[in-house]
Amino acid sequence: MSVLPQSMASRWAAVPERQRATIVTAVVWAVILLYPLADRALKLRWLNTVTDAAVFVVLALGLNIVVGFAGLLDLGYAAFFAIGAYTMGIFNSPFHGIQWGFWIVIGLAAVIAALFGMILGAPTLRLRGDYLAIVTLGFGEIVPIVFRNASSLTFKIGPLVLFENYNLTNGVQGLNPVGRPNLFGFHFANDPLPWYYLIMFVGALVIIGSRRLQDSRLGRAWIAIREDETAADFMGVDPIKTKLLAFALGASFSGLAGSVYASKLQAIFPELFRFNVSVLLLCMVILGGMGNIRGVVLGGMLITVFDRVVLAQSTVFVRTLGNLVGIPALQTADLSLWRWFFFGATLIIVMVLRPEGLLPSKERQAELHGADEQFDWPKQREDLAIDEAGEPVENELRVGAE
């Protein structure tokens, strides 16, 4: 019985790595394309949950640029999520009489979020570790407060009144309705199927972009700063420009996800972007594996499905059990109230038993466990020293250096 699995494993190991990656990618795309059919056939009704999970995966991939690639601890990442969502609400909603269209505003949301990422990054360039985390935490708390209170804005320059009592965000009531996309005459409504394919398409673009960034000179500069900023600076990496680009590009992914999410919900409120969203996204990155794109995707999917599906089904099971055994505490139990306990316990277990995450990169795994046999350091050094044309690269890590 065990001979067949061993034979299959040996054959799979004999397949060249590039072909294995192609096969795995093809299988994943087949699962993504066919999942709605399976969901409908099995009556799972998880399509909307999987769609929301994909939104949070996009968010986690953006945070992975800042935390995983560049090593900058950002505890206010949900602020860029809010900025993207409110950009969609302001520029594509009848509330202000401005309806530029979904496809224009998603690009605008990414650009505006990137600008705010640079605004956040500029004054914090020389901060590291806990100090940077505190500043980003403050930024993450300020942005929802601004949106909550930007319902009566007045701007004066001397006697000149530019606007008075202008309602920008509608306060705690939020902006509703938010415009939805039209594609070749097809209007996106409440059916989760078109949203599923749209967000999967956006997610695919973000994954491709993340992969290209990781393999670029900028990506290697981020990793150099993460490992040793002083040494990277000595080698020619411009830390100021490199950090700014990390904040800007990470924020742009968040703004993109926020704009799509606002349009899908058709309403946005300040309470959607509290600090716990930033913590949830950080949990996804840590659980999956910081710096590893596939790991972050896995972590995002696992945590969202656990939060939206597993806890809900477990609550039903516990209440049913309580009715059978006659225990009032179980009859009224709501496990969703314990979600942060479960997330915290999971993080503790992961950090103790597997600090590199569930699906770490080979570099990270070798760094933490000394698994030189799993990662060919001489070959990696050789690969980093040769460019695509086969020529030695002396200044490969130089980003923005004079």
Gist?
This protein is mainly alpha-helical and 402 residues long. The chain has helices spanning 3-14, 17-42, 47-69, 78-91, 102-121, 129-149, 192-215, 217-227, 229-234, 239-265, 275-288, 293-325, 328-331, 339-353, 362-369, 377-384; strands spanning 92-93, 98-99, 153-157, 160-166, 182-183, 186-187. The protein has a two-stranded antiparallel ribbon. A two-stranded antiparallel ribbon has the order 3-4.
Care to describe what's here?
With 402 residues, the chain is mainly alpha-helical. It contains 16 helices and six strands. Strands 1-2 form a two-stranded antiparallel ribbon. The longest helix is centred in the C-terminal third of the chain and has 33 residues, at 293-325. The chain starts with a helix and ends in an 18-residue tail after the last helix.
Question: Can you tag this structure with a few keywords?
Answer:
5% strand; 402 residues; mainly alpha; two-stranded antiparallel ribbon; 66% helix; 16 helices; 6 strands
Give the topology, please.
Elements: H1 3-14, H2 17-42, H3 47-69, H4 78-91, E1 92-93, E2 98-99, H5 102-121, H6 129-149, E3 153-157, E4 160-166, E5 182-183, E6 186-187, H7 192-215, H8 217-227, H9 229-234, H10 239-265, H11 275-288, H12 293-325, H13 328-331, H14 339-353, H15 362-369, H16 377-384
Antiparallel strand pairs: 1-2, 3-4, 5-6
Helix pairs in contact: 3-7, 3-10, 3-11, 3-12, 4-5, 4-6, 4-10, 5-10, 7-8, 7-10, 8-10, 11-12, 11-14
